[in-house]
Q: What sequence folds into this?
């Protein structure tokens, strides 16, 4: 009996140590690199553009694009604004196209391995500088012949929000980055807690009568709420048709299943209907693990707020929807 107790105790200790080790490993795994962005000259206010999906059925609001200018490049370029990405990054293919067309950009936009150093770009009147930014082998390899066509050179991540306030006015396609919430909006907004840990925008809202942690992912632009298959089944409106669509996430092929729902989220005293709910097949093990490890109830895209103005007050730790 004593031997059995010792073996059982040893197994329990091993499980405890393994669990703690797994916790710290996963925490380190999801921790982003140090923020490289230095932003000066705020406030900045820009008119954003919608980017249509390249797959059928075409969604005209598949991406939210922010215009930027680069030294030595007379063309307006665009970054997809993606709060689901904790770090800003650039697309190597697009940079190569710019270097070919505009030789003045050659030195600044030439990656070394998977990194571009000493990057500068402007957002309206604000200047953004980075000691280095990571690059991905992604993006268009040729500039469009039509100068009005959006040329996307990378992703503007949640690192640009560090210590700042972001206002997105969807109705007027306007986005503002500043250092404090305008009083005119603060008085009319319904706020809920916002957590910016590891540069991920996680808000707390009530869904189906329960407090849920929801990741605001502006990169999942075309969707209201992305959640698990089990929750999707609970929220789906009976007999409602299901729209199945192919999607692409940085080269990874995904399949989305979207259907109507009568459910809504409660943000303080404001009710925001979802309209529809989605689950996704084909996500990576890392993404699935992040969802389970963080305890998140789902991801909110831009579609959930397309009739509203939202306020991301990172220093104040609050997320607001303006009435």
A:
């Amino acid at each position: 009996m004593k031997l059995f107790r010792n073996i059982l105790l040893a197994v329990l200790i091993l499980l405890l140590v393994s669990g703690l080790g797994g916790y710290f490993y996963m925490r380190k795994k999801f921790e982003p690199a140090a923020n490289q962005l230095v932003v000066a000259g705020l406030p900045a206010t820009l008119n954003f553009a919608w980017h249509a999906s390249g797959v059928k059925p075409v969604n005209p609001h598949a991406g939210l694009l922010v215009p930027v200018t680069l030294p030595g490049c007379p063309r307006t370029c665009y970054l997809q604004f993606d709060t689901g990405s904790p770090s800003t990054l650039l697309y190597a293919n697009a940079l190569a196209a710019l270097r070919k067309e505009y030789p003045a950009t050659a030195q600044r936009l030439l990656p070394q391995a998977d990194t571009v150093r000493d990057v500068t770009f402007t957002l309206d009147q604000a200047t953004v500088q980075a000691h280095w930014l990571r690059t991905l082998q992604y993006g268009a390899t040729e500039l469009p012949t039509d100068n009005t066509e959006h040329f996307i050179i990378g992703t503007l991540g949640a690192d640009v929000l560090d210590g700042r306030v972001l206002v997105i006015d969807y109705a007027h396609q306007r986005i503002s980055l500043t250092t404090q919430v305008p009083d005119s909006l603060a008085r009319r907004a319904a706020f809920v807690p916002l957590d910016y840990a590891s540069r991920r925008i996680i808000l707390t809202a009530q869904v189906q009568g329960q407090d849920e942690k929801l990741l605001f992912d502006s990169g999942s632009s075309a969707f209201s709420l992305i959640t698990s298959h089990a929750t999707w089944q609970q929220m789906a409106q009976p007999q409602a048709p299901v729209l199945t669509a192919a999607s692409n996430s940085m080269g990874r092929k995904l399949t989305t299943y979207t259907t109507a729902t009568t459910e809504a989220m409660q943000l303080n005293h404001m009710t925001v209907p979802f309209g529809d709910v989605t689950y996704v097949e084909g996500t990576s093990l890392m993404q699935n693990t992040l969802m389970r490890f963080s305890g998140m109830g789902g991801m909110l895209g831009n579609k959930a707020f397309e009739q509203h103005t939202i306020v991301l007050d990172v220093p104040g730790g609050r997320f607001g929807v303006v009435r």
